[in-house]
Amino acid sequence: MINKSKNYDDLLYSLPLNIRNIIIKLDEYLKEGLEEIRLRIDKPLMVYVNNQERFLSADGNIVNSPNLAYIVTNEDCEKALQLISKSSIYAFENELRNGYITIKGGYRVGICGKCVIDGESVKTIVNISGFNYRIMRQCIGSSDEIMRYIVKYPDVVNNTLIISPPQCGKTTLIRDIARNISNGMPELNFQGEKVSIVDERSEIAACFKGIPQNDVGYRTDVLDLCPKHIGILMMIRSMSPKVIITDEIGKVEDISSIHEALNAGVSIITTVHGNGIEDVARKKYIDEMLNNREFDRYVILSRKLGAGTIEAILDRDFNAIFKGPYRKECKTIC
């Protein structure tokens, strides 16, 4: 398996010069484990690396005290906004109202500031004072070992729900599942099927100007930044998918559109936040899907061995057909 991070050029050149020079100085092993870069005006520069929050000094070293860290300036944040928006923040208003901008390379930059409200919706964000650069990595092959539980010869794809706490690798996993279903797996005598991804938060395919920055397979179509309940129905009507993949269901309209897909004979692979089957069984609307045995497989994730740890795979009657913890190691390529 390859943990395939696009080289850092797209990320680096979206950072203000002072911050860029600090990140460049990081040791290679820290760059490989980098998950987030946090900029807050008048606060110490912080990174989330190898599952830990750390402070960074001006010379690119990890320091234990915020007093020794580089202090992010107002000018740094102004420059960051110019770089990620290409000096035209209005061109990104649709993304900005969701609290982030996706930049070239598939990296997502979260943004905080003062929200301008229009009715019950966020119109835009002004007085921006904080940025979270999330490092996108694609783990090619992360789903290989579990695909035999999800697909089978000649063209069966099991309806699958991935259950995971935040930051445990669920999006990385469904991205690789999409690639494998789309491209096919000769070792499983599975030839590949048409996949439609409804990517409401632009996390799975990480589209930039409509083009997926991640490898999601050559039989895959993507609706970017489209609400799940709308996109699922659009895909059914227009793209004749065998499988629809989306992330983080929970609203009643999500469940209703999934029912439409299942009634149309389309397989569903999706995710939900939770700490196990008992936890998600207490969630409104999800409980009915579990009681009705609408999913054939449940994949339960944790961080026990690091992000992407598979704790168990259950069948439609909640019997364990795979027991972990198990995690396939990644080799990071920058």
Protein architecture, described:
The structure is a single chain. This protein is of the alpha/beta class and 334 residues long. The chain folds into 2 domains: 2-134, Beta-Lactamase; 138-333, Rossmann fold (3-Layer(aba) Sandwich). Helix content is 25%, strand content 33%. It has helices at 9-12, 17-24, 28-32, 74-85, 93-96, 147-150, 170-183, 228-238, 252-263, 277-280, 286-291; strands at 2-4, 34-40, 46-49, 52-56, 62-63, 100-102, 108-118, 121-134, 138-140, 151-152, 156-157, 160-164, 195-199, 207-208, 211-212, 220-224, 243-246, 267-273, 297-302, 309-315, 320-326, 331-333. The strands form 5 sheets. Strands 16-13-17-18-12-19-20-21 form an 8-stranded mixed beta sheet, sandwiched between helices. Strand 20 and strand 21 (320-326) form a beta hairpin. Helix 8 (228-238) runs parallel beside helix 9. The longest helix has 14 residues, at 170-183. It starts with a strand and ends with a strand. The model is unreliable at 1-5 (pLDDT under 50). One of its GO terms (molecular function) is ATP binding.
Provide tags for this entry.
334 residues; alpha/beta; Beta-Lactamase; Rossmann fold; 8-stranded mixed β-sheet; 7-stranded antiparallel β-sheet; 22 strands; globular; nucleotide-binding; AAA+_ATPase; Spore_III_AA; ATP-binding; P-loop_NTPase
List the helices and strands and how they pair.
Layout: E1 2-4, H1 9-12, H2 17-24, H3 28-32, E2 34-40, E3 46-49, E4 52-56, E5 62-63, H4 74-85, H5 93-96, E6 100-102, E7 108-118, E8 121-134, E9 138-140, H6 147-150, E10 151-152, E11 156-157, E12 160-164, H7 170-183, E13 195-199, E14 207-208, E15 211-212, E16 220-224, H8 228-238, E17 243-246, H9 252-263, E18 267-273, H10 277-280, H11 286-291, E19 297-302, E20 309-315, E21 320-326, E22 331-333
Parallel strand pairs: 1-22, 12-18, 12-19, 13-16, 13-17, 17-18
Antiparallel strand pairs: 1-9, 2-3, 2-8, 3-4, 4-5, 6-7, 7-8, 10-11, 14-15, 19-20, 20-21
Helix pairs in contact: 8-9
